[in-house]
User: What shape does this take?
Amino acid sequence: MQIIELPPTRLDLPNGGEPVYIATQQWVLKPWEGEDQPGLRRSWSIKPKFSVSGSRSCAELAVLHHLRDGGWQGIWVNAYNPPATGVRMAPRVRSQDHEPDRRTDMGR
Assistant: This one.
C-alpha cells in the first residue's frame, strides 16, 4: 500500500467557529492479480480486488488490516449478516461542554 500525504482538508463547523483542518491521505492499494477462491459469494466476488499480505481482499478490509498493523483495534461488521454476539459498542461519553452524548472511537 502506498500512502500519499495530501494538504489538510478544511472543515467548517456548524457553529460558525474557526475552521478545523483534518489530516488527509490518499491510499493506493495493490491490485489482486490472482483468481477468486472457489465458492466465494457473489457479494464478495463483485468487489474490486486488492492484495493484502499476499491474499485477496477488498478495500474496506485492506484499510482495517492497515489500521490494525498501526496498533488500532477494530472489526468489520457485514451489514447483510451482522454477528449476533461478540460486538462491543464504543462507550458513551459526555463532553465538558455538555453536548449531547456521542460515541468515542474504538481506537488507541
Remarks:
- Strands lie at 2-11, 20-28, 50-52, 55-57, 92-93, 102-103.
- The longest helix spans residues 59-69.
- The longest strand covers residues 2-11.
